[in-house]
Write a structure and sequence with these properties.
CTP binds at residues 99, 109, 125-128, 143, 157, 161. Pathway: Cofactor biosynthesis; coenzyme A biosynthesis; CoA from (R)-pantothenate: step 3/5; Cofactor biosynthesis; coenzyme A biosynthesis; CoA from (R)-pantothenate: step 2/5. One of its GO terms (cellular component) is phosphopantothenoylcysteine decarboxylase complex. Its EC number is 4.1.1.36, 6.3.2.5. It is a single chain. The protein is α/β, with parallel strands linked by helices. It has one domain (10-220): Rossmann fold (3-Layer(aba) Sandwich), CATH 3.40.50. Helix content is 27%, strand content 30%. The chain contains five helices and twelve strands. The strands form three sheets. An eight-stranded mixed beta sheet has the order 5-4-1-6-9-10-11-12, with helices on both faces. A two-stranded antiparallel ribbon has the order 2-3. The chain is globular and about 60 Å long. The structure holds ligand PMT.
């Protein structure tokens, strides 16, 4: 392949659902197969980028030619992303990050006892917001998985988390969101809707998103 618009660029992609332990045998997580993030990593590599894939556990094979950093919890993912932020040109936050984690992680298996078990959850750091606040020249692409008022929540997240682009998928729509091989997305920037991509493979969606990022960083420099 000769089309390499990301030659010389460093791209970091997060993928999968972060996993928060309750005890050694139980955890909570979010729905995410990792397919969207892995497609981004694979296509970015094809387009010439030096790619780092920060991935929560998934059932997928690691893409070749890509540096893989395996993480579990949101705290781990935050560390992995923030420690590499400065050297990156483009960051895609396709991971489904757990917003809360158990306040206490039991060291031993919790035994069955009463009819109810209450697990207290505490808020996790927001990785996208953290890098949005700290970014200097990095081009940051956030994602939003929504079930209603997609455009409104997408624009709100874009502004609040200081992203350059935000990719919204309505996870109630057939052929969109987590698990499936296709996606249907609406891409926003600060001025509003940039593009609406009809249902297509996650690889094609990834390629288009990478093209948009490549065009926009070229304009910047
Ligand atoms: O993995 P697949 O099965 O292919 O599915 C793909 C996907 C639906 C998971 C993906 O396309 C997607 O939308 N990912 C983001 C899902 C999500 O967590 O959305 P959110 O609206 O909760 O979060 C918004 C953004 O903030 C995301 O970029 C998320 O990575 C980030 N975030 C959220 C919470 C948090 N504590 N830290 C974060 O960085």
């Amino acid at each position: 392949q000769t089309y390499k618009p990301l030659q010389g660029k460093k791209v970091l992609v997060t993928a999968g659902g972060t996993l928060e332990r309750i005890d050694p045998v139980r955890y909570i997580t979010n729905d995410s197969s990792g397919k969207m993030g892995y497609a981004l990593a694979e296509e970015a590599h094809r387009m010439g980028a030096e790619v780092t894939l920060v991935t929560a556990p998934t059932a997928l094979k690691f893409p070749s030619g890509v540096q893989v950093v395996e993480v579990q919890s949101t705290e781990d993912m935050l560390q992995a992303v923030v420690s590499r932020l400065e050297e990156m040109d483009i960051i895609f936050k396709a991971a489904a990050v757990a917003d809360y984690r158990p306040a206490v992680q039991a060291a031993q298996k919790i035994k069955k006892s009463g009819d109810e078990l209450v697990i207290k959850l505490v808020k996790n750091p927001d990785i996208l917001q953290t890098i949005g606040e700290r970014k200097t020249t990095q081009f940051i692409v956030g994602f939003a998985a929504e079930t209603n008022d997609v455009d409104k929540y997408a624009m709100d997240k874009l502004i609040r988390k200081n992203c350059d682009l935000l990719v919204a998928n309505d996870v109630t729509e057939a052929g969109a969101g987590f698990g499936v091989d296709t996606n249907v997305v609406r891409v926003f920037d600060r001025n509003g809707l940039v593009e609406a991509l009809p249902m297509q493979s996650k690889s094609n969606v990834a390629r288009r998103l990478l093209q948009l990022a490549a065009e926009r960083i070229k304009g910047d420099n």
